[in-house]
């Protein structure tokens, strides 16, 4: 996911970084930051597929910082897990959830779903040159 750093808040060793990802606000919590990271920096963000939770609806009262709408473009069901290929504004990400959860939510290709990512599960893969 390509995003731009919108804000950086630091207290002691803790950093909260806000990103603009196609007009979607994402937040990351980190103990260490690259010294070259600045407000306005263009970055590539990374999240593990197992850290991308799925909801059929937007959840208002929740501690997770990151929510965004995504379209399911493919679902692969294994014996225990389901791998979902998701598209957000021409960016593709993957979510891995239990097959039971996929069936309980009745997830189908083409569904618009809500993805949820904890701020501590989002990381900067690299800083990009403009």
UniProtKB/TrEMBL annotation:
Alphabetized InterPro entries for the sequence: Mo/tungstate-bd_C_term_dom (IPR008995), Transp-assoc_OB_typ1 (IPR005116)
Transport-associated OB type domain boundaries: 65-122
Top-level taxon of the source organism: Bacteria
Pfam families according to UniProt: TOBE
Record-given protein name: Molybdenum-pterin binding domain-containing protein
Species the sequence originates in: Aliarcobacter cryaerophilus ATCC 43158
């Amino acid at each position: 996911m390509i995003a731009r750093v919108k804000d950086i808040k630091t207290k002691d060793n803790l950093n909260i970084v806000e990103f603009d990802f196609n007009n979607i606000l994402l937040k990351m919590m980190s103990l260490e930051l690259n010294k070259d990271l600045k407000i306005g920096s263009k970055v590539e963000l990374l999240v593990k597929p197992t850290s991308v939770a799925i909801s059929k609806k937007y959840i208002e009262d929740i501690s997770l910082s990151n929510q965004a709408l995504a379209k399911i473009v493919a679902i692969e069901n294994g014996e225990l897990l389901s791998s979902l290929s998701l598209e957000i504004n021409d960016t593709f990400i993957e979510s891995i959830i239990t097959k039971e959860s996929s069936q309980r939510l009745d997830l189908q290709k083409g569904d618009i779903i809500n993805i949820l990512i904890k701020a501590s599960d989002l990381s900067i893969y690299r800083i990009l040159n403009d």
